Amino acid sequence: MNSSIFENLHARGLLSDESMNMILEYRRKPLISVFWELRTLLYIGIVLLSTGLGILVYKNIDTIGHQVILAFIASITAGCFYWCYKRKAPFSTGKAESPEAFFDYVVLLGTLSFLTFTGYLQFQYEVFGTRYGLATFIPMLVLFFLAYYFDHRGILTLAIANLAVWMGVTVTPKELLETADFNSETFIYTYLALGTLLLLAAYLSRRLDFKKHFCFSYLHYGLHVTFIALLCGYFFYDYGISLVWLVVLAALAGYIFRFSYRTGSFYFLLISVVYAYIAAGGFVVRSMIAANGEELLSLVFLYFISSGVGLIIYLIKVNKQIKTV
Amino acid sequence: MIIYDTTGLYNILVVDETSEACRKGLITEEELVKIKQAHPSPFYTPNIFVRAGFFLLTCIISSFSAGLLSLIFLDSNMISGYAWLLFLGLANYAALELSTKRNRYYRAGVDDALIWISGSLIAGTFMLIAEGNNTLISGFIFLLSLMFTLRFTDRLTAVVAYLAALACIFFSWQKMGDFGLLSIPFVLMAVSAATYVFSKRVEGLPAGRYYKSCLKAVQLVSLLTLYLSANYYVVKELGDMLSGEVSDTIPFAWFFWLWTIAIPFVYIAWGVRNKDLLLIRTGLLLITLAVFTFRNYYHMLPVELAFTIGGIVVLAVTWFLIKYLHTPKAGFTSVQADRSKEDDELNVESLIVSETFSDVGTHDDGGTTFGGGRFGGGGSSSDF
Predict the structure, then answer these.
(1) Kindly report the CA angle at B341 between B337 and B347, in degrees rounded to 5?
(2) Which of A156, A213, B350, B355 lies deepest, with the highest CB count within 10 Å?
(3) Which positions in chain B touch A316 (Cβ < 8 Å)?
(4) What is the signed CA dihedral for B245, B249, B251, B254, rounded to 10 degrees?
(5) What's the complex ipTM?
(6) How many CA atoms lie within 13 A of B278 on its CB side?
(7) Does any domain span residue A226?
């Protein structure tokens, strides 16, 4: 803290004597919060522990009895959930505050060991047999239940990822880039269905006022998946039919744009604008190719320059409007 | 020297400091509102999403402008050679100066992008001219980034400047032969320590007022290089690489081992003493590096046991600290000082959770490949 700044403010009468004394007192005896440092450590500890346990189980599958391992993991899961159950705030349809700093982390640890537990059950005893759909469907249901029951957004994203696995695709961006194959029709439609489902969930959470703060996660994943699916669809089909995809994309982008403008969420506004911009750029380039107009190349360059500049100016304007709302 | 209006920078500084004081409950909300009104920011500084978006858009604009110019001058011989690269770099720099002055961008994404584009183009030109003379290249990059830092108070260019200076010293010292190789860790340590002390000093001076974020960034990186320059793994492997042979041990091994293990704790202890969060965080980070270094040479435990025990120890220590610091002790508390930020960070945290654990239960899609980076880089036309 820079003392000259506060002295200056004090001299100009913008700071009362009382506040100035508080500042001076704080400078003499500062109090530093290590809240985030400790939270990060908790997170690291849980990652270490659950990874270590996972490998431990995997490596010792032949030596220690299966029941022992199962009982051990199950007891961790049960212990965590019991601890949380005792402490949790009563269920509400709004946002439930975490009763204490550990709460979210214990829920996370319990959930992760639960996943190890079901994975182990399936691996060793094939409880679900070869019905892999069921093997992912049940953990998914449990994850959604836990997310809502303990009000945990981290677990909600895990549940969403599991929903995607169940539908045969992976949803987190990293995996999406690594493993997704954008060139197959079934994948495009699966993504589209998944995205629509998530958007519907976002819409319903807001509309029914049921865990409204989950809307962010649903919308975040839903929008990216839907927009990417629509873009893939657009680039997959021939010029004529692909326009249908373009129209749908424009409609969605327009709707999200208006929605985020109303609610003042610049993040979602930006997403809709960026995807619409990519689609528009794709349309311009494809049109040029369709028209066989290589000589139009400099025009296309000019389009990208001017549209980029225009977009920046426009977004600055919208940003100012949203701030003042 | 600074391109920005310094009164405006001072206003931002005042609002930052008083907002922090208000979050800590030292001054009242009414006072903060009054202070904010008396200190308006003349700049355009959007939030992080917009900044990222503008960064990408500016890259698109800049590269298509370069493409258009190259198209126009395609027939003449102008676009081959260094001169064209230099011209593009200078043109981007001119755009940077103009847009920052006229549109009052301040960390708005546009200026960030133009700093990087013009800087890389000019540095690229020099690299082509210098033809692999590492000392010269790193020296030039140091001067260039120093200039950018002084003019635009950008913290990343400050870090680049520091690292380039370190590289320059490294390359010139290396030329001294065997003695140079042996003494390099100590030289780098001395430079890192000197930089840390220097940036700490400057931070307190009135002249360093507007460079606070740059100085903080340099402090962090110099702490890291101070540790790494005498980390056992770095010293040994780098020494092997430079001399081209595989050694069993290195001279003064005991010193480097002591440094590797002890320094993280020294940082933390020092940070606790001086109430310096930067030191504490760096120390915590370096503990992991120390563990990795140790495990690389001595496999005392199988990895799963190390993970499990490590996890339990970390959880136990953290648990203890949270309980212990619940009522503040020695100027530290485990209670959150500032609740206003929580919503945002929780959202980010939930995304991190899904990224780290996304491998849970995913099944292989069977050797599918990603189709050519069509959506990479924010551009739409890289495929055509």
Answers:
(1) 130
(2) A156
(3) 44, 46
(4) 160
(5) 0.76
(6) 13
(7) no
Nearest-Cα distance to chain B for A23, in Å, is: 6
What is the Cα–Cα distance from B312 to A51, expressed in whole angstroms?
12
Contact A165 B281 (CB under 8 A): no
Burial class (CB in 10 A: 0-12, 13-18, 19+), A109: buried
Q: CA B21 to CA B32: how far, in whole Å?
A: 9
What is the DSSP code (8-state) at residue B27?
S
Q: How confident is the model at residue B359 (pLDDT cuts 50, 70, 90)?
A: very low
A 47-106 residues with CB < 8 A to B? 47-53, 55-56, 59, 101-102
pLDDT tens column, A105-121: 888 888 888 888 888 78
Note whether residue B331 is domain-resident: yes
Q: Containing H/E element for B236?
A: helix B232-243
Average pLDDT over residues A22-28: 79
Mean pLDDT computed over B89-111: 91
User: Contact at 8 Å (CB) between A6 and B22?
Assistant: no
Domain that holds residue A105: 32-166
Whether residues B292 and B318 fall in one domain: no
Q: Count each helix (H run) and each strand (E run) in chain B, helices first.
A: 14, 1
How many domains, chain B?
3
Is A244 part of a structural domain of the chain? no
Place of tokens 């994309």: A249
How many separate domains does chain A show? Answer: 1
Q: Is B225 contained in some domain?
A: no
Residues B186 and B241 in one domain: no
- Rounded to whole angstroms, the Cα distance separating B211 from B196 reads 14
Q: Are A175 and A166 in contact (CB under 8 A)?
A: no
Residue B248 CB-density burial (10 A; 0-12 exposed, 13-18 middle, 19+ buried): exposed
Q: What is the CA angle B209-B210-B213, rounded to 5?
A: 100
DSSP letter at B377?
G
CB A229 within 8 A of CB A184: no
Of B17, B44, B384, the CB nearest to A289: B384
Task: Report chain A residues whose CB lies below 8 A from the CB of B268.
Answer: none
Answer yes or no: is B150 within a domain: yes
Its domain, for residue B276, covers 230-300
